[in-house]
Amino acid sequence: MTLEVRKSGAACGAEIACDLSRDLDEATFREIEGVFHDNIVVVFRGQALSSERHIAFSRRFGHLEIHIVNKYLLPGYPEILLISNIRDDKGEHIGLADAGFTWHTDTSYRRQPSRCSLLYAKEVPERDGETLGDTVFADTVAAYEALPQTMKQRLAGRYAIHRYSARRRVEDSPRPKLTQAQLDETPDILHPIVRTHPYTGRKALYVTAGECIGIDGMPEDEALSLIAELDAHCVRPEFLYRHKWRVGDLLMWDNAAAMHLAICDYALPQRRLMHRTTVIGGVPF
């Protein structure tokens, strides 16, 4: 079949018309995968997915991660991470309440970071009929391609040092503090600043301020200045796509080709509930 695809008109992003609650043959899945690679961020609107269907579709892209913050895994479905500002009867958050509030790429602190993440909207906050809690994506392929040749040469062969515990957090974050065991599980890791996409071969910037605490073989002050410069370059307006959520959206993004940021412009009683799966990728090169 030929899928109906509507491009966002921004740097990246497209909508695919497809009912994911039904079985997909291999040809259709491969077509979806191709559209995904071409557009970096894709959304399937109006989905009615069971947790089993969400997991099954995600698994077609690879093995799924069990998130390190296991407190917020969906009971009975550890592949699904709850992202929510909703509180239970004891006043405790039922999911990660501050997920994505700073620019980042998912699990860059792993030796094998995420290939892609799939976020399913169960509840979307609203005010006066307008949806809140948008997610913004930065096309880091376009950002790399826009660099001057002298900068590309400067970055060639350089590796950034990624540290999970250094990731920027919002003030008074409700996220539980990392245990020593979790810290031991996530040692510093080196990844190329310019990574090659494993499926398309295109090059992208792979560095984020805060999350990257240095550059291998470079003095700290010079490294941090360069990281900040590249981080600011990636989020220039011409590289961005802003997604406005609807209940039933299944949105997926390519962590080898994009950074993202969740906009927190809502608070209870405006409720947000998302189910996220994360596909493990390969070692960046």
Report on this model:
It is a single chain. With 285 residues, the protein is an alpha+beta fold. It has six helices and 18 strands. The chain has helices at residues 26-39, 51-59, 140-145, 149-155, 180-185, 220-234; strands spanning 4-7, 14-17, 41-44, 73-74, 77-84, 114-123, 126-127, 130-131, 135-139, 159-162, 189-192, 194-196, 203-205, 212-215, 240-243, 250-254, 258-262, 273-280. The strands form five sheets. It has an eight-stranded mixed sheet, covered by helices on one side. Strand 1 and strand 2 (14-17) form a beta hairpin. The protein is globular and about 50 Å long. The protein starts with a strand and ends in a 5-residue tail after the last strand. The mean pLDDT is 93.
Put the structure in a nutshell.
This protein is α+β, with helices and mostly antiparallel strands and 285 residues long.
Give the topology, please.
Elements: E1 4-7, E2 14-17, H1 26-39, E3 41-44, H2 51-59, E4 73-74, E5 77-84, E6 114-123, E7 126-127, E8 130-131, E9 135-139, H3 140-145, H4 149-155, E10 159-162, H5 180-185, E11 189-192, E12 194-196, E13 203-205, E14 212-215, H6 220-234, E15 240-243, E16 250-254, E17 258-262, E18 273-280
Parallel strand pairs: 2-3
Antiparallel strand pairs: 1-2, 3-16, 4-5, 5-18, 6-16, 6-18, 7-8, 9-15, 9-17, 10-11, 10-14, 12-13
